[in-house]
Amino acid sequence: MRALLQRVLEAKVVVDGETTGEIQHGILVFLGIGKEDDLVKGKKLIDKILKYRFFDDEQGKMGWNINQANGGLLLVSQFTLMAQTQKGLRPDFGPAMPPNDAKALYEELVSYAKSQFDNVQTGIFGADMKVHLVNDGPVTFNLEIE
């Protein structure tokens, strides 16, 4: 399971002209789910994201997590994160979990995230999403759980 985290001043997801999720200051998470991933790994990743010290504290160092920074969390499914890109000129999506299984797991992870944190927004799994963001920093991290 992979997550690309971006610290944002604002972010939103638009599907068919409608905003499906929107946050101000917080973390935009692009989430990739692989064939071998499960709810245990997903919960571990969500817990890490929520505890990850991503925001500046009083000393200007990355010492605060999303809760301490009063931020929002925007979760967006993105199977392309699972692509193998080491060989050739075309991505191989073989490592990605099949869509029906990935959707069920993604929905469980969203529910878990909402049970752990108050300000969680989402995109729509499998939709053609337009993601708008203002990256803060820029600060971007790639987290993987195996």
TrEMBL record:
**SUPFAM superfamilies given for it?**
DTD-like
Per its record, the protein catalyses: a D-aminoacyl-tRNA + H2O = a tRNA + a D-alpha-amino acid + H(+); glycyl-tRNA(Ala) + H2O = tRNA(Ala) + glycine + H(+)
Q: Report which superkingdom the organism of origin falls in.
A: Bacteria
Indicate whether Hydrolase appears among the record's keywords.
Answer: yes
Please provide, alphabetically and separated by semicolons, the GO molecular function terms listed in this UniProt record.
Answer: D-aminoacyl-tRNA deacylase activity
Record's subcellular location:
Cytoplasm
User: What EC number(s) has UniProt assigned to this enzyme?
Assistant: 3.1.1.96, 3.1.1.-
Q: Keyword RNA-binding on this protein?
A: yes
Keywords from the UniProt entry: Cytoplasm, Hydrolase, RNA-binding, tRNA-binding
Question: Which Pfam families does the protein's record reference?
Answer: Tyr_Deacylase (PF02580)
Q: What is its main location?
A: cytoplasm
Enzyme class of the recorded protein, top EC level: hydrolase
Query: What positions carry the motif Gly-cisPro motif, important for rejection of L-amino acids?
Result: 137-138
* Protein family according to the UniProt entry: Belongs to the DTD family.
Purpose: An aminoacyl-tRNA editing enzyme that deacylates mischarged D-aminoacyl-tRNAs. Also deacylates mischarged glycyl-tRNA(Ala), protecting cells against glycine mischarging by AlaRS. Acts via tRNA-based rather than protein-based catalysis; rejects L-amino acids rather than detecting D-amino acids in the active site. By recycling D-aminoacyl-tRNA to D-amino acids and free tRNA molecules, this enzyme counteracts the toxicity associated with the formation of D-aminoacyl-tRNA entities in vivo and helps enforce protein L-homochirality.
Q: What is known of its domains?
A: A Gly-cisPro motif from one monomer fits into the active site of the other monomer to allow specific chiral rejection of L-amino acids.
Assembly with partners or alone: Homodimer.
Q: What is this protein called?
A: D-aminoacyl-tRNA deacylase
Q: Which gene encodes it?
A: dtd
